[in-house]
Amino acid sequence: MLAYRWATEVVTLLAPACERIEIVGSLRRCYRHEVDPMKPLDRRRNTMPASGPGTFGVSDIEILAEPKWEIPVTRTKSLFPDTDKPEARDQLGDLVTTLVSRPDSQLTWDSALMRRGPKYKRLAWRGAKYLTGGAAPAIPIDLFIVTPPASWGCLQAIRTGPAEFSRLLVTSRAKGGALPNHLVAVSGALKNKDGWLQPATEAEYFAAVGLPCWPPAERSAEKLRDWLRRNDSAGEEPQ
User: Fold this and answer.
1) Which pTM value belongs to this model?
2) Predicted confidence (pLDDT) per residue in 7-28, tens digit
3) In this structure, are residues 50 and 32 in contact, taking their beta carbons and an 8 Å threshold?
4) Full set of structural domains in the chain with CATH
5) How far apart are the first and last CA of the chain?
6) Which ranges constitute the DSSP H helices of 161-238?
7) What does the H/E/C string look like for 35-89?
């Protein structure tokens, strides 16, 4: 599927500025295998899914990234010298700015939705026009960025979806969701009475909330609700 190929090309472009980066959303759920984004894209490799939407059946591309940070040697001067701190630079933000500024770049800002914040950027990939002679519009890209206190494990689970499944993940059991009542999910982070939890992987996140870590293709709100009905005591805080 072309949308997946384009997504892997975007991941390959951004990977040098990332600690971790991965395709999420519907494209991740459609595929039975994972592509290692830190390896160069092999254009000869067959990456077609066993099943999934058609070439233009995907409305957007979703990518999750954890940026690398660079702390310069020089310090930012302030009115209070004793409190001067190094000003960390987000290498991913710098790379995105560089790429979209190139006149011939296939990666650009999405002019329909201007979002360029530190946690979320809305981009577009103009690869489609090279296939259709300009008839196809650029495909939107949702770039979700892991910034503290958010953790990779939380955001990977939430951003993989589908949407209703993710909504249940961040809604407490008391309100009809799947999140244990002693936990709170906010801004891609998980918190209990003792502070922030930092699940480094999706599997750790599901373990923390007491849920099975189903493969992405098998996730649905119906399956989650059915599991909750059969395990309705799991929302209690461990003693």
Assistant:
1) 0.80
2) 999 999 999 999 999 999 999 9
3) yes
4) 1-69+86-147 (3.30.460), 156-232 (3.30.210)
5) 48
6) 163-169, 202-208, 221-230
7) CCCCCCCCCCCCCCCCCCCCCCCCCCEEEEEEECEECCCCCCCCCCHHHCCCCCE
